[in-house]
Fold this sequence. Notes:
With 270 residues, this protein is an alpha/beta fold.
Amino acid sequence: MTLLNPQAADALAAALKERDLPGRIRLIEAEVPGRLVFTTSLGIEDQVLTHAIALAKGRTEIVTLDTGRLYPETYDVWAETESAYGIRIRAYAPEREAEERFVAEEGINGFRHSVAARQACCGFRKVEPLGRALAGAAGWLTGLRAGQSANRADTPLAEADEARGLIKINPLADWSRADVDRFVSDNYVPYNVLHDRGFPSIGCAPCTRAIRVGEDERAGRWWWEQASKKECGLHVQVPEGQASGETVAPGREAAAFETTQTSNALEMAR
Length: 270
Ligand code: SF4
């Protein structure tokens, strides 16, 4: 059975809805044929999924995108997680030439010049490596939750990602942040200490800050940009022909951060 149509994805989502987290992992591994890849950012939702996948001892691969700009605390929890569960989290790094070119043209923190430059940085540090991580995959597991931000409010448990040619599965889509915290506490799941310092969402160090009381969970990501632009291009319906995560050329022309000129391929996501 192919899951690459909305009806099949909806059926899988309905079946997942009836199960607890270990049951969801088992069902995914039973129902989705072929390579299964879980991309972890080492954030707290992803730590919940890593825990469940590691204990299932199944066939889901756990990978991460090492942008080279992560917080030291993120590398610490990465190592702690591998040790705690006896696993290896495979890293996908940026292509060296793309990184060197961007830094030469824009500067080491050139992503602050414009939305386009920021998206270009996310493009070679995250989107292109993601394309390599997902190459040949039949299923992609993520830790997205609907409650994380307005952009993610419609996140389903499963959806057909026809451009990437896989089914995207979000086993925590219907979990609240309280559900996540309770699971982590009850199961002694290792987590990034920055979560205790006001960081509900943790990305690259120069692009993530702690949030203030009452702010959206993702308010600390690219806080200098408009809320509607604050995604990096990982969780988008990529247009046909861009499935490997095409990068957007850096540009300084849009000096105003509130520019509305964004690429569809890079408009949404983590
Ligand atoms: Fe670059 Fe910031 Fe995106 Fe990281 S989050 S890839 S540093 S623009």
